[in-house]
Every structure is written in C-alpha cells, then in structure tokens.
Amino acid sequence: MNKYKRKNFLIILLSPSGGGKSAILRKLLRIRDDIGYSISYTTREPRESEINGIDYNFISNEEFQNLKDSEDLLESAVVHGCWYGTSKSFIENELKKGKHIIMDIDVQGAKQIIKKKINAVTIFIIPPSKEILIERLKDRGTDTEEEINTRLNSAKKEMEELHNFQYLVINDDLNQAIQEVNEIINTEEKKIHRFVDIKGNFYGG
Ligand code: ADP
Ligand code: 5GP
C-alpha cells in the first residue's frame, strides 16, 4: 500500500469547440478510475444524445440565476448565448472521494478559476490546423453552418488566450492525444508540493 498521501487536483481541458475535449475525456474516464468528471450546469437545450445529470445538468435561466445567487458556482460564463457554470460543492465532494476532477470548460471560466488562485492543471487542446477543425465540426454533425461559423469566430479569440495556460496537446491522432493528456496528469501527480508530509511518512509515519 502506498502510504504517501497526495492532494488531488483540478484538471481543466480547454480547446476551441470541436478541438476534441469530449472525445479525449470520454476515453480518459474509461481508462482511469481516479478521475471524476465535473458535470456543469447549463441553460442550453440538451442535444439528442445527451443525458441530464450525466453530460450536463440542464436547467432554466431562472434556476441558473438562483445558483449564481447561492454562490455555489466556482465559475460561470455565457458561451454561444447560453449560461454555463461549475458547481463548487459538487467538485468539493468529488475531491473528498479521493479523485482528481476533470473539467471541460471555456476560456473565460478557466481564467476565473486561475484568478482565484485555485491550483488547477490547464491543458489546451488544438487540432493540427484550422482546416481540420472545420472538417471535424462538420463531420460531428451537431451544429448548423451558422453555429459552426460562430464556433470558428470564438476559436480565433480563444487562441489569443493560449498564453494563460500550461500545456498544449495537438490532437492529430486521438489515441496519441489521450496518451499525452494522461502523461501530463501522471507527471503532475509526481510534483513534490502535491504530497502531504513526505518526511513524516518516510521516518515511520
Ligand atoms: P469538443 O468537445 O472539444 O467540442 P469533440 O470531442 O466533440 O470536441 O470533437 C469534435 C469532433 O471531432 C467529434 O466528432 C470527434 O469525434 C472528432 N474528433 C476528435 N478528435 C479527433 C481526432 N484526433 N481525429 C479525428 N476525429 C476527431
Ligand atoms: P457545448 O455546449 O458544445 O457542450 O459546450 C460549449 C462550450 O461551453 C465548450 O467550450 C465547453 O467547454 C464550455 N463549457 C461547458 N461547461 C462549462 C462550464 O461549466 N463553464 C464554462 N465556463 N464553460 C463550459
């Protein structure tokens, strides 16, 4: 048994829409049982394949406002015209279970978390090129041409914010990208400051 206790951390996956966050996350959560997923609240309508309480907590504008008032939101932002936010209490509960928490949130939300000096690992994912991003968004088939254009405009702005974040993963081959994200998490786990009382444990704690 490993007696060296470690503090778990938040992992924020960022990318332009269509960058591959969901695809990477889905697989990562299957291969690691030490990571929980932060289920966001949103006022957006669910897509056909999405399940309430699993992909998102889908709520009304009024309910979202109540959440904001209750101060349970760690961060919140309007993305493509709808509200999105992360529940503080949900994350705290998951961390207590001894898991890292992975979050799929936008650049505005990630910046709010960094500003609060919360220790989070930030990983920015991009496809190899703009052309490939467009292709993937079209192939995904979840957005109209107008929505795709909105997402491409947002992508431009998001790329301007790259310098705020720590790691870059180029999502060319999906399995390779998943492996790289996995390796980043493994490396972060080894940072000295994440351990609790190393000396005490070494000398017989
Ligand atoms: P995001 O969650 O960042 O918006 P998705 O995970 O939905 O992006 O990815 C957008 C589309 O691209 C999806 O249809 C996904 O299956 C596909 N995709 C993601 N990564 C790759 C990859 N490396 N190669 C080919 N297709 C990919
Ligand atoms: P989608 O509606 O396509 O699932 O997500 C749209 C965008 O909202 C993505 O960039 C996604 O990362 C972001 N998003 C999802 N949940 C949250 C959240 O809780 N907070 C913030 N700030 N953005 C989120």
Describe this structure in words.
With 205 residues, the protein is α/β, with parallel strands linked by helices. It has a domain at 10-38 and 100-203: P-loop containing nucleotide triphosphate hydrolases (Rossmann fold, 3-Layer(aba) Sandwich). The protein is 42% helix and 20% strand. The protein has eight helices and nine strands. The chain has helices at residues 21-31, 61-70, 88-96, 107-115, 130-140, 145-159, 174-189, 198-202; strands at 10-14, 35-37, 41-42, 57-58, 73-79, 82-87, 100-104, 120-126, 167-170. The strands form two sheets. It has a five-stranded parallel β-sheet with strand order 2-7-1-8-9, with helices on both faces. Strands 4-3-6-5 form a four-stranded mixed β-sheet. A hairpin with a 2-residue loop joins strand 5 and strand 6 (82-87). Helix 1 crosses helix 7 (174-189). The radius of gyration is 18 Å and the shape is globular. The model has no long low-confidence stretch (mean pLDDT 94).
